[in-house]
Amino acid sequence: MEIIPLTGVEREFNENELIVSKTDLTGKLTYGNRLFFNLAGMNEEECLGKQHNIVRHPDMPRCVFDLLWRTLQAGEELFAYVVNRSSNGDHYWVFAHVTPSTDMNGTVNGYHSNRRSPNRTILNESIIPLYKRLLRVEKDDPSPRSGLEKSKAMIADLLAERKQGFNEFMFSLEG
């Protein structure tokens, strides 16, 4: 896979628009709406059947995705700010709501994500500084596994200090 350099250019979308994507249980894309494909800079053929992490940005802390997957596998929803990478190296921020999808019997058969344009004040004053600290902990450790564990501990400590779960924390930033 070709590594595209980051451009530093942010793609933004209207606050009334909604990005939608769906995956199977392994994270392979099964659906994306037009806005998803436009921001990702790819078409359906380039995305469907591929892992959703094809839009993962290297500045996104791994501990947030670890939390996402643990939450989903517990059958729960997660709200999180996420920075994604477009195919040309641009990036775009979202406020994501990710939840398990179920069949008629209530069996989880995939995951569904709706993403909105983020609150810029929260992003700039809270999320970006937090994610930079988490990412620094992950990257400064010579062991990727140890770095991940340390960043997970940082989030756990922050949430314990605030006496909040992650979703509560995300919404508490609204003020």
Description:
Helix 4 (120-140) crosses helix 5. This protein has helices spanning 34-40, 44-47, 62-73, 120-140, 144-162, 166-172, and strands at residues 19-23, 29-32, 78-85, 91-102, 108-116. The protein has one domain (19-172): Beta-Lactamase, CATH 3.30.450.20. It is of the alpha+beta class. The model has no long low-confidence stretch (mean pLDDT 96). It is built from six helices and five strands; from the N terminus they run ββαααβββααα. A five-stranded antiparallel β-sheet has the order 2-1-5-4-3. It is 40% helix and 22% strand.
Short recap of the structure:
The protein is α+β, with helices and mostly antiparallel strands.
Q: Which parts are unreliable, with pLDDT below 50 for 5 consecutive residues or more?
A: none
Spatial strand arrangement across the major sheet: 2-1-5-4-3
CATH topology title: Beta-Lactamase
Q: Output the CATH homologous superfamily.
A: PAS domain
Could you report the average pLDDT, rounded to the nearest whole number?
Answer: 96
